[in-house]
Amino acid sequence: MLIQIYTDFTLAYGLGEEISYNFAAIEQYLMDQVLSGKPFIDLELRKFSFANEARMSGALTAVRHRIPQIELTPELKDAIAKELSESPQLLQACLQALEVVVGFLSSMGGTHVRSLPTHLFLTEYMKETLFFESSSLFATKTVSKHVQLQHILSLWKILDESLCVDPFANVSSKFKSELNETEESRLTDVASFLDLRVLVPALKEFMLNYLGENTSLGPDYVLKDIIGEYSDPQGTCFSDMDWFDQYFPGGDLLLRHIHAVYLILTKASAAR
Known about the structure:
Blueprint: H1 2-5, E1 7-8, E2 20-21, H2 23-35, H3 53-56, H4 59-66, H5 74-84, H6 88-107, H7 110-114, H8 122-128, H9 141-146, H10 152-163, H11 181-190, H12 196-210, H13 223-228, H14 242-247, H15 258-271
Antiparallel strand pairs: 1-2
Helix pairs in contact: 4-6, 6-10, 12-15
């Protein structure tokens, strides 16, 4: 009966099959007659967050491609690490809360993510969009005051590194081969020509995301070819960067050496 009332059709010859329904009116009728005056349901959904779930599912990479990311300043990184260093329980709780945010952002449609301003504060997004009533991140003053959506991956690195003594514990040993003296010397010589601020984090992210025990990648791929197809936070492939194409060693440097390459370039970056 309701459908018939809100059906639009014509009796004109030959047009009898053209029927449309006024769904807006039907919806309003149901709200007025069925839902009006009814109590709201307080829905509670239990959330489960497993260690490294966001990273291992590729969620971090998805967020990086959807929301342009920048690093927090060294001063803010130190302040956050110091604020959380006295409580491993608080640190773990903050990481679990951040995993929920990362998981949500990585699974939402592109329209939702593109509508988000990168400078929106993380805690504001958690309260107003994800309806967090409380979170350990809210109690962290530096995070609440300074961390925005464009800092999510930078914050993740701080929390993850603070919790894990060896961040590469889950990286397969077949990608941890040492370099010989010639290879090490060659890499050290060209380090000054490489943009280590971009390359070093990318090497680490690639290892953590793709080189676990169950990876389909083999250790004998040329490292330059593999990383060349990887992209920076702005979405530019390393193979399209002149400094990488011209100076990053190819040939004998294989994917099995990526961990050793990371350690050498990290040391070179710290020395600058």
